[in-house]
Design goal:
Length: 122
Amino acid sequence: MVELRLMDGPRLAGPRVPLVLAGVGGALAVWQISTAPTQIGVKTAKLRRVSGRNNAAGTTWLHIGTGVGAGFVDVIPPLRVVNNMDFVYGEEELPPTEFSADMTAYAEAVPVDVQVEVEEIG
């Protein structure tokens, strides 16, 4: 039986972000929460899909969370990405997590390209 999800928000894909600096110091924004001046209420984003390509010399871990540098906090467990391969993690593999701050990511080895798809709520 197919479940109708009428209350879900729109699904939006973020830009392809090339992670070029290894480690937490190389964390970059992969999704930014909307803060339009005319917006009423708070928007959040549910992570629905993570995809990209690992161009690094070896298999590495992709960390997704919030903050940059020493202020980075993992929000989901790190994702293992195999070298020279495309990767896609869908809703089935990702924990049900809702972000109320900008989503950032870094890889332990680089270069890794990453793109997220979110469901925008609010």
